[in-house]
Amino acid sequence: LLTVTVFLSTLTPKFYFALTVTSSFISGLIFVFEWWHFRKYGTSFIEQVSVSHLRPLIGGVENSPPPPAAFSAGESETSRQNMPECKVWRNPLNLFRGAEYSRYMWVTGKEPLTYYDMNLSAQDHQNFFTCDTDALRPSDTVMQKAWRERNPQARIKAAYQALELNNDCATAYVLLAEEEATTIVDAERYFKQALKAGEMIYRKSQNCHSQSPQHEAQLRRDTNVLVYVKRRLAMCARKLGRIREAVKMMRDLMKEFPLLSMLNIHENLLEALLELQAYADVQAVLAKYDDISLPKSAAICYTAALLKARAVSERFSPETASKRGLSTAEINAVEAIHRAVEFNPHVPKYLLEMKSLVLPPEHILKRGDSEAVAYAFFHLQHWKRIEGALNLLHCTWEGTFRMIPYPLEKGHLFYPYPSCTETADRELLPTFHEVSVYPQKELPFFIHFTAGLCSFSAMLALLTHQFPELMVIFAKAVSVVS
């Protein structure tokens, strides 16, 4: 102790200042490196080295998480890694341009659709409604140019030109129904004209589709037009309150074209059946489409959770459940909610009205904020109708990410939550909407630790520079006490 005291008494304030500056500099470098490593790889370098190299030396065993369940049929780990994380899908319940989106813009002065979203729709229309044989029919040639037009008035003008050339041009009626009609009634009238023309053209294409590859392409195009028109007519009936008629049209469409399941017509059917409160029929549809061999969606996962919650939500009380424990039915409902939240964690904030809704875009990103907006916009009323369902959701949904602490790295029932959804959602949703980026990944402990260490040593360096004698006395006192 005497030796240490003599040694410390010979040190000057410059030494302490140099020591604190050096330690601050080193801890700052460690902090910068930790932050860079976390931003690039999503993990703490110090924690990773500790777990991978130091823990086995002291006899620790790492508990590896269970492998996530398969997301779709025949999906292996390799295919899951190679699968595009941020594929954009056509919104099955997208609104009508003229009758709904334009009316919103007239009232609020805000543009509900982004250029990126409308550009995707233009590409869809060209893929659905055009083919190589359009040059054989002048009206189709005009419509092929119409779908490429950026100006809505130019598209509408081209549709009327096509009707002048051929009064049975189905795609011209489709464009007018989508963009010129200012009410759902007007849109339905145009779609009925499109259906009459589309069925006639479809029958002609069926009779000669085997003659050449060009005729096969024409049949595919005419099939797309017919399916699109029937689906939109069913949606018109749903919006005008003719729910049973809409359900019948959707069921008939699914039976007539069973191979077009990728259009997700069953999601339109689920929403209409929920409006009828036909919960047994909803369960039957879910039994067919909520299968491990089919891609999931927020509509599938949250509708399944709603049905499970319906069985227990009316009598559910968090205080009572904490005392007696959860019953089997309550456990099933909570697990269904966790499953739904793991698939899309943005939905609960809209259902619980913690976040304001906007008009859903024409395209959605699976598991993204855009899908959450689209789901909640149409299904919030169904959750409110079932007493206690929102209360059960409120009490249980946040527990999902206590079960999965790092959703960007791990998955329980689905592959880990994609990290690229925020960028894609910002392109799909309007600028006045605050995009949800939940779940945000928490910073590792060592980033906080190194930041605190750097700040503390920098503060000591500053105090040593300003009050050298006092800091020397303080350092000697600390060393003697220790």
- Beta-strand share of residues: under 5%
N-to-C series of helices and strands = HHHHEHHHHHHHHHHHHHHEHHHHHH
Helix-and-strand structural type:
mainly alpha
Q: Give the total of domains.
A: 4
Question: How many helices in DSSP terms?
Answer: 24
Strand order of the largest sheet: 1-2
- Low-pLDDT windows of residues: 60-84
Distance between the termini: 11 Å
Query: What's the helical proportion of residues?
Result: 55-70%
Mean pLDDT: 82
- Sheet with most strands: 2 strands, antiparallel
Could you give the count of β-strands? 2
Shape: elongated
Gyration radius, rounded? 31 Å
In brief, what are we looking at here?
This protein is an all-alpha fold and 482 residues long. Helix content is 67%, strand content 1%. The chain has a two-stranded antiparallel ribbon.
Describe the overall structure.
By secondary structure, the chain is mostly helical. It has 4 domains: 51 residues; 171 residues; 164 residues, no CATH class; 34 residues. Helix content is 67%, strand content 1%. It contains 24 helices and 2 strands. It has a two-stranded antiparallel sheet with strand order 1-2. The chain is elongated. The chain starts with a helix and ends with a helix. About 5% of the residues have low confidence. Its main location: membrane. Belongs to the ST7 family. It is found in: Membrane. One of its GO terms (cellular component) is membrane. It holds the Pfam family ST7.
